[in-house]
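User: quick one, fold this
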Amino acid sequence: MYNQFLLCALVFGVLLAPSCLAQNVPVSIVVSAGVNEDPTGVRVGRSLSDEIQLSATFYKWPGRVSGLPSNGVLIHVTSIDVRLQNGEDLGSAIVVRADRPSAVDPDYYKFLSEQAWMILKDASVTDLIRSFLAEVDRQMAR
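Assistant:
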């Protein structure tokens, strides 16, 4: 019975270890208050969260921002709804910024990357999010 337990534990360890080791960078997302009122901003936030969960490099930090480890990444998402003069919704201006917390000073964050986009209301955001996360990954490797 004990040997069977060890064999099962070993099999699960071998199967789960590669995915656990690959996701080594915790990410915390901070969304500005206006994003929740902007449909395109909400889509960007969801897409960012989904891409982080599907990533082999990043995982979503379950704790508070103040507890983010020094190897983590803090991503800020800011969104402004853009409308035409007649009130028709055109899309959103989105700014995403990634910073890394300092190991020495908990109140200091080192800049990694920032991108600004004008996203039309029906446009896809997946490619933009993927390119942003790839840029953050490249900057962290420096």
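User: anything notable?
Assistant: The chain has three helices and five strands.
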